[in-house]
TrEMBL record:
Source organism per UniProt: Cannabis sativa
GO molecular-function terms, A-Z: DNA binding
Residue ranges of every copy of the HTH myb-type domain listed in the record: 16-72, 73-123
A Gene Ontology term for the protein's cellular component: nucleus
Pfam families, alphabetized: Myb_DNA-binding
This protein's name: Uncharacterized protein
Species classification: Eukaryota, Viridiplantae, Streptophyta, Embryophyta, Tracheophyta
PANTHER family with a match to the protein in the record: MYB FAMILY TRANSCRIPTION FACTOR (PTHR10641), MYB TRANSCRIPTION FACTOR MIXTA-LIKE PROTEIN (PTHR10641:SF1362)
CDD domains membership: SANT
Main localization (coarse): nucleus
Subcellular location: Nucleus
Domain called Myb-like: residue spans: 16-68, 69-119
Amino acid sequence: MNLNEVKMGKIACCDKNGVKKGAWTPEEDQILVNYIKRHGHGTWRSLPKHAGLLRCGKSCRLRWTNYLRPGIKRGPFSQEEESTIIQLHAMFGNRWAVIASQIPGRTDNEIKNYWNTHLKKRGICLAENLQHSLLLCQSDNPSHNKDQVSPLTRHSIQWESARLEAELRLSMESSQLSSSTNKIADHFLLLWNSEIGKSFRQIKSKHEDLYRSHVPEIASTAKFGSSSCVPIQAGNINNNHSTNMIQQEEDGYKPSTDSNSSSLCELSDFTNTVSDMLLDSPVGFDLDFFQGNEDGFAISLDRSPDNSLMF
DNA sequence: AACCGTGCCAACCGCCCGGAC
DNA sequence: GGTCCGGGCGGTTGGCACGGT
């Protein structure tokens, strides 16, 4: 057992087999890189022996794919990458490999870590803050009648709170999805990368800009929510209006009929096209999975009407 | 200066899937 | 059809860094 393993706090159970564990040294990295450059990785299990490394093949593969492989992007995530992660996570849950495949230079491990340490926490904090704000508005201050709270604010809080809770719930439940969803995920990736997916993201951006410009108090704090951009209908929350975009408010805001209606038309067209594509799905899932309605369309990953994912 | 708590992230572990036999 | 094996994936662990007391 070497010093490094002692520092790592791990008893090298494989030491008796001559297999080293723990952090990789620069020397080991160099050996691995040189070998793969010359011979390719071949069979991972036999690689350590041929390369002269005292590691198991699995460890070599992990080190290569997550750290040494060319094209790995280090450093902080950009706004765009973050937004993509959130959107894809809303669709696929904890399927990090699928998400990573859409973000060049980032590994599944890195995305998983980023989600667990940054995004998930941010989502929970925001949801709690919003719920707290709502409670304060409604009960803590007797002189502060809830009717005096701006409908826009109240509606926004309800909306964001409900959506975040549902999004978090979905992320937890997604781990329980059956393997049949793999093919569904593939199909969604196809859509995501198509022109349709591209235009869908543009349309969504339009709605977000509209939303942000009229809900500054939410937009300024709701980085998670505003960038995730995948409003979700929460079934177990008492919010009667959460599925409707904010339409009428006391501050005189009147949504632009033109931009709204054209966006809705685009969304409607998008929905129809997607439905057509999904009819060709090799998986054969029923269309309860993907429903259109007057509010737009919904993707119900668990096929429960109470947990639909609203676009 | 020492200790403690917390966040980050590289690495490990165990399970699962698909291909070969 | 059953078994074995390699590889991939997601969850978890634990050392390090850093800030607060």
